[in-house]
Amino acid sequence: MSKSNDSPHPDDSRLKVKDLQVYYFTNRGKVRAVDDISFEISGNESIGIVGESASGKSTLGAAIIRSVNSPGKILRGKIYVNGKNVLDFSESNFNREMRWKKIAVIFQGAMNSLDPVYRISEQLRELMQEHKIKGDYEQFINQALTDVGLDKSVANRYPHELSGGMKQRVVITMALLLQPLILIADEPTTALDVLVQAQIMNLLKKLKAERNMNIVMITHDISLISEIADKIAIMYAGQIVELASSSELLVNPRHPYTQALIKAIPKIQDTYTKIESIKGNPPDLASELKGCRFYDRCPHAMEVCLQDPPLFKTKTGYVKCWLYKELDLEGTNN
Ligand SMILES: Nc1ncnc2c1ncn2[C@@H]1O[C@H](COP(=O)(O)OP(=O)(O)OP(=O)(O)O)[C@@H](O)[C@H]1O
Ligand code: SF4
Ligand SMILES: [Mg+2]
After folding, report:
1. Tell me: the pLDDT tens digits for 34-75?
2. Which residues lie with the beta carbon below 6 Å from any ligand 1 atom?
3. How far is the CA of 257 from the centre of ligand 2 (A)?
4. Residue 70 Cα: closest atom of ligand 1
5. Torsions phi, psi of 181, nearest 5?
6. 132, 188, 201, 214: most buried by Cβ count inside 10 Å?
7. Where are the domains of the chain?
8. Model pTM score
């Protein structure tokens, strides 16, 4: 791959988010949904974004594809896709060159937003026309459905005639119509039973490998993503508090919040072990936030934690916690 002139990054950096800040301006005040977030994925890496409800995961996903809902605003930061900052594009250029072609998204709950009055073939055909895809529509639709493991007869059905898993496969088909480089999948298995969840995750894993696609997988369920994500970013109250390779993070979680999330995963062999839920609630993102945002729930809270912890570098990422002050050997907080 040749180095693009406007790319200040390594050639294989597919997605780089730098110092991203997205707030919602509500009558309750500004909600700091995404507050200074940075991460990067290269080559064909995928990343899992994990955190509790309202931690800002969907806002982050929406910001990457410039679809933050009103009254949200991207205030600061850069989002490089293949070295180009998508925030530098005019809306029309972004739509023409990037949206769906380079980055696509499966929005949270998308499978429940399929139009109930149109058959699947009609919905796919409309999208193809919108995207100006040429060729034999019927053949294209049959192939697209087969690629996601659906029978071509699904084309003639209405959404209500499909199971949850089948609807999710249709939604995946729609997102992948233009063969994007990066797929943002926001809670793609919520509301599906465990078996179907596993099937959808396997499908995404297969498509990722076949198409050399990067996936940004958003979920509140850390146990789901280890197989698909090369890296995991743990979000808490609008910030990434820990980022590491999946193997490192799952075996050696550093941040007390990550440790608590992992402890809360039910283990099949431990049927009698009580699952520990995380006590307390995250802070209100519309309030004045000082110091470590996990302070009130942290079993290790210390006086220094009343100051905002910087990002301390680890072997494969970083951790935002004063317990790891001594790790920052290079003295760089990125
Ligand atoms: N349109 C909006 N207007 C105002 N506030 C919003 C809006 N959308 C999200 N928020 C707020 O931004 C914060 C982050 O929300 P977001 O939906 O990004 O979280 P999430 O991690 O995706 O949660 P969930 O796991 O429930 O999907 C929350 O405090 C939420 O209330
Ligand atoms: S910075 Fe302090 S309060 Fe925050 S997670 Fe680390 S130890 Fe706990
Ligand atoms: Mg969400």
Report:
1. 999 999 999 989 999 999 999 999 999 999 999 999 999 999
2. 24, 26, 31, 33, 51, 53-59, 69, 71-72, 108, 220, 285
3. 9
4. 1
5. -80, -35
6. 188
7. 257-334
8. 0.92
